[in-house]
């Protein structure tokens, strides 16, 4: 099942340049839940991230922190061949600072 409405999908894929938000190298092919559905995560756009199949599959129902720790320790049981240590970066939007009126 496809997660996220078309607008959310377009926005998130564009924000990551079509790349996986976990490894930042592979092309993303789906939206993944940062907080897994199994742990109460929602389909809110703030809980979704574009992901490649190896990252999404190996993360499964783990939290991002647990997944990163298991990957670093080499104790993942799924997603063999996935890229090593993932990096998650929040896409930042430039802030338009305006001087405070005196
Ligand atoms: Zn990936």
From TrEMBL:
Alphabetized UniProt keyword annotations: Endonuclease, Hydrolase, Nuclease
Domain HNH positions: 20-60
Gene Ontology MF terms: endonuclease activity; nucleic acid binding; zinc ion binding
PANTHER family recorded: OS07G0170200 PROTEIN (PTHR33877:SF2), SLL1193 PROTEIN (PTHR33877)
Name under which the protein is recorded: HNH endonuclease
Provenance organism: Frankia casuarinae (strain DSM 45818 / CECT 9043 / HFP020203 / CcI3)
Source organism phylogeny: Bacteria, Bacillati, Actinomycetota, Actinomycetes, Frankiales
